[in-house]
């Protein structure tokens, strides 16, 4: 086999078949039986299911703390987790540029397989297309996923929020966005900023098991915390008040954001969640999150109020109030 | 709103939200409630489900008889139909180039919505990413789908084939591949060659309802009929004998293939199926297919034999035998 991807690898003939059987499936760790057939046939994971899809265009493909393969698995796993589902099966669709290294594809396949095992999901179906040189920037990945939703799980949606509810985050903000930016721009810092990309479903199950009053969950990816808070405020028709000093940010992220003129509230995260919970259960919710390694920096960052509906107000370090604007432009493209 | 896609439309903030609510959802015909949330929560379509994904990179985006939107819906619907599933819900992930026309995106959204209604499926979740100018050629679409599998449906797989079984096709071969090639190369013919792209699940349900002895089904897309026949031969460890004169090809496709030096056996189809059925039920199977408008040209093209296992032999018009090779190169990239 050649060392780079050719158009023949996408033509549906012998080369496609070899690429699948000899490179992709062994790397992911799936057998060559019915794995990655056009369609997988499987028992439904439950009476109620969650279904999601996400495209990944991150550049560079590898960055400190992760790569496009891990991101593609965890991103879809996390979208399922945010509606309270337990992720079960994923699909993997890749669009590859002619000339892409087969060794790198194999390496990314291994990352996908390892990430799937880490997140307790199976890759059951897939598709690989090859396009000519220049028609795509190296490799784009789209994953879709199905999860099981427990019977009786209350609806998790920002329209469930009520004044007095508490806002929680599971950890530090901005790590992923800054790690990708630094890798892309070849900025080197000590200590290195690493992506937080991780599968959040076990953390969500801890939280849901400990606290009945979870109103909604969201992973602050594109647009960061600022985007999620604004979505919450709009959908709930309530106001949000955030205590700037309470929002956890790694000191290195904070310093670099100051130097680069970035705001960690607007940077993407790939292993964090934002939750609205019943105010009376906020302490218990924080404790449940902190019990899990991915939630050890969890804390309460604010509350839902009946004042200024639809608006997110930040109480700053200086004791002043300012509005957290909904992101309007694009500071950092291709962060996920 | 601007008339073209900007990076801000992919940033997860206000512009992304506006694009979704004001362009994509209305075009598809989905409400702005929970439609196209990160994850859809829905009742499972059945105890056994089918799950599939497919990426679409076709160029040009519009071609006689179809476009990337219809192709993305029907391609995934057909992958589900080929395992006997009734397609139920789809996801829609788009990767769009900065500068893409919002009007064209709206038009393609309408095509997706109309195709989904035609195929009786709902688009329940999605994702839109924007990448910088030059990072993708205009627009790539990845759809995933879930279908319900009836209890007691026999396993449809080429390893179920037995000597004496019949090979059927549901109609003419090569229309889609030639239509896209002609559109891309701006070749104009009279009559025009049109893509056959269509949803095959109703046709499959007709066949399965009429004939218990269906062994397997496949839609001959990339690599065409030649690829499917070779996959069947390999997986069944049987030989296949095909009667060249029995394979239906539109006269215009046949003439053009001769002029262009192409073989319709290797051209993609997007609204046709190949079936292996119990030889004793071949006539009934053909009749069942012909009862449906998408199968009116259905016919028996050959049989499974215990001779030359793994090899597809063509009985030519001249009465000679030749081997139908597994496609090894790429004649026509980006056909789907």
Characterization of this structure:
Two copies of one chain form a homodimer. By secondary structure, chain A is an alpha+beta fold. The first copy, chain A, has two domains: 39-149, 60s Ribosomal Protein L30, Chain: A, CATH 3.30.1330.10; 158-323, PurM-like C-terminal domain (Phosphoribosyl-aminoimidazole Synthetase, Chain A, domain 2, Alpha-Beta Complex), CATH 3.90.650.10. The first copy, chain A, has helices at residues 14-28, 68-81, 102-118, 175-184, 201-210, 224-236, 251-260, 282-290, and strands at residues 39-43, 48-56, 62-63, 66-67, 86-97, 122-131, 139-149, 166-169, 214-218, 239-243, 274-277, 299-305, 312-315, 321-323. A seven-stranded mixed sheet of chain A has the order 9-11-8-12-10-13-14. A four-stranded mixed sheet of chain A has the order 2-7-5-6. A two-stranded antiparallel ribbon of chain A has the order 3-4. The mean pLDDT of chain A is 95. At the A-B interface, α1, β1, β2, β5 and β6 of A face α1, β1, β2, β5 and β6 of B.
